[in-house]
């Protein structure tokens, strides 16, 4: 069986080199375009880091699908992944609160990140666990594809929950169900939000202050973790109902018709380990790089224009309010 580890894939892709000839009338931009089966990576990182980012994105996508949606099949889905080498460049468009940005604008879905690919996997909050900002951003993208309607608490909580999906060293398996310590700390530190608040978030409740957002984000993760660990059948049914465009409030009441929200607040506060961990096999797939080439100045400008528009839209913040993690800064 082939070795599908990220390093092995990068080594195999090493034979594919960037075109070295540029137009005599145009100086090199320093930006690279790398394409795989499901991603178009645009970055001003090195060509090697660009290829690494593309392969890591493919491997992470496959791991998430295997761990969370093994029965779903996506056809012809494609995602832009824009990576700024300098954090300040990213902050120019998205501010200094978020670690990544997932957007779903008229130009198609896109994820914006910054820094070397290894940084995305090193958001360590505790020595025994970590969260991946790339996994979290990809989860935002995938949930938008799978669920016709999803409340804010669920999209936030599920992204936080899936951010801890861990891919094995050989890239062949992934584990799901790890505790998100950053979200848990937010829940325990900022105790202002209740389950009733979470269910109203995005509809009748539109908070803007950071403390409330952190409290709601931590609570949303805990609600998803609670369903996954203690009410697995209801968790599956709730997701199925969201996929039918049923109003999220009605979906919740259908799955938990007699649940008192005040009692759930108390139960969630007492909820603790052990968390249920599951290991899944990542199906073999083609992670080869289909194209890698230098970008033109016009393409770089178009990419920056799209980033500016995405920064104005800012529909789905990843790694910001609701996920205050200790991430190395470049």
**Widest sheet: strand ordering:** 11-1-2-3-5-4-12
Q: What is the total number of structural domains?
A: 1
Low-confidence stretches: 8-24, 123-128, 315-330
Query: How widely separated are the two ends?
Result: 37 Å
Calculate Rg over CA atoms. Answer: 20 Å
Strand content: 15-25%
The oligomeric state of the chains shown is: single chain
**What is the N-to-C order of secondary-structure elements (H for helix, E for strand)?**
HEEHEHEEHEEHHEEHHHHHHEEHE
| Main sheet properties | 7 strands, mixed
Instruction: Give helix % range.
Output: 40-55%
Helix segment tally: 13
Shape call:
globular
Mean pLDDT: 84
Number of strands: 12
Judged by helices, strands and strand pairing, the structural class is alpha+beta
Could you outline the blueprint of secondary structure elements for this entry?
Layout: H1 6-13, E1 32-35, E2 39-43, H2 47-68, E3 79-84, H3 87-94, E4 100-105, E5 108-114, H4 117-120, E6 123-126, E7 129-131, H5 133-146, H6 152-162, E8 166-167, E9 173-176, H7 181-189, H8 195-200, H9 210-230, H10 232-242, H11 248-255, H12 261-270, E10 278-281, E11 291-294, H13 297-313, E12 316-318
Helix pairs in contact: 1-2, 2-5, 5-6, 6-9, 7-9, 9-10, 10-11
Architecture overview:
With 330 residues, the protein is an alpha+beta fold. 45% of the residues lie in helices and 16% in strands. It has one domain. The protein has 13 helices and twelve strands. β4 (100-105) and β5 form a beta hairpin. α1 (6-13) packs across α2 (47-68), α2 (47-68) packs across α5 (133-146) and α6 (152-162) packs across α9 (210-230). It is globular and about 65 Å long. The two termini are 37 Å apart. Residues 8-24, 123-128 and 315-330 have low confidence and may be disordered.
């Amino acid at each position: 069986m082939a070795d599908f580890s990220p390093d092995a894939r990068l080594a195999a892709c090493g034979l594919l080199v960037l075109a070295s000839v540029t137009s005599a009338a145009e100086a090199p931009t320093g930006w690279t375009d790398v394409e795989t089966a499901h991603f178009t990576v645009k970055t001003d990182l090195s060509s090697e880091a660009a290829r690494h980012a593309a392969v890591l994105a493919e491997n992470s996508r496959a791991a998430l699908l295997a761990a969370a949606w093994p029965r779903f099949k996506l056809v012809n889905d494609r995602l832009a992944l824009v990576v700024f080498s300098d954090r300040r460049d990213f902050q120019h468009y998205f501010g200094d609160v978020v670690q990544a940005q997932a957007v779903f604008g008229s130009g198609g879905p896109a994820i914006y990140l910054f820094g070397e690919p290894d940084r995305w996997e090193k958001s360590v909050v505790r020595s025994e666990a970590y969260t991946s900002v790339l996994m979290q951003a990809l989860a935002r993208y995938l949930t938008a594809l799978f669920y016709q309607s999803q409340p804010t608490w669920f999209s936030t909580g599920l992204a936080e929950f899936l951010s801890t999906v861990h891919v094995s060293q050989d890239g062949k398996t992934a584990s799901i169900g790890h505790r998100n310590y950053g979200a848990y700390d937010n829940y325990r530190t900022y105790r202002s939000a209740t389950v009733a608040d979470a269910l109203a978030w995005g509809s009748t409740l539109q908070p803007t202050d950071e403390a409330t957002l952190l409290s709601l984000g931590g609570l949303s993760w805990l609600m998803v973790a609670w369903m996954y660990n203690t009410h697995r059948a209801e968790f599956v049914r709730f997701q199925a109902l969201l996929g039918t465009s049923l109003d999220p409030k009605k979906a919740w009441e259908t799955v938990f018709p007699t649940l008192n929200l005040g009692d759930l607040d108390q139960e969630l506060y007492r909820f603790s380990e052990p968390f249920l961990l599951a290991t899944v096999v990542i199906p073999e797939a083609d992670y080869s790089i289909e194209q890698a080439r230098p970008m033109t100045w016009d393409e770089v400008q178009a990419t920056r224009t799209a980033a500016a528009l995405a920064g104005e839209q800012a529909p789905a913040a990843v790694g910001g309010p609701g996920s205050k993690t200790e991430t190395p800064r470049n």
